[in-house]
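Q: Sequence in, structure out?
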Amino acid sequence: VTITGVNGWIKPLKFMISTAIYTMTIPWLLSYVQGWQRFVRFSAWFTGVALVIENSLLIVQVLRGTTSHFNASTPFNAVVFGIMGILIFTLSALNLVVAIRLVMQKMADRVFGWGLRLGLLITVAGMLVAALMTSPTAAQLEKAYQGKGLPVSGAHSVGVEDGGAGLPLLGWSTEGGDLRIPHFVGLHALQVLPLLGWWLSRRRASLRWSEGQRLALVWIAGLGYLGLMGLLTWQALRGQSIVAPDSLMVVATLALVARATIATLFVLRRKAVGA
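A: Exactly. Output:
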């Protein structure tokens, strides 16, 4: 089945891999929430059910030979996309509530705790990037003004039509901007930053860095990660492909890397504990 120029089963495959990683991470993260047990159980239950429905709808649309996202060509297709949007918006809201709860509560390990909090907050921001994809493009609005209706409302790509040349398997556009990139990067902050905090805590004896140093490193990583997601969003909205950055994007990226590197060196230049 070919949909928008690519094998239609690639999208469900990517979603299943992504949601599998997400559903393995969420119970681990929720285990650190103190109290609010009813809310924790509901969040875990809703996450599982929502992602099963999401993946099922993707498969249904592939079997029907049509797209799942941005598809308003028929009432059924519009309802499918609407259900998917409501589920993801609700997941984002639940994640935000969990993040707020984690910020409010005290955690014995501050380094790991801030890895969890920052990872979850940036993941919520990554989820919200998807909202930028739902606005009709200029070309879609032009067709609507011409009386051709709005069978497709929104797009992954910016500056080019969805379904053009893209990176192997990932499908990210190599011809224009693609908002799936910052969305992807943001979502996986949920694994990257908590794991960094966990590693710094587990290795505190061998690394011989103080708690303040390790905490600062988590914050540098978190702010750097958020900055990267912001740069990728900016690049996509400018209609620029990830594989063809202009000089402005290169300079901005180098500036971000330089600031993170300088901040890291400044933190680590302090004498190690016990040295």
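The two ends are 63 Å apart (CA to CA).
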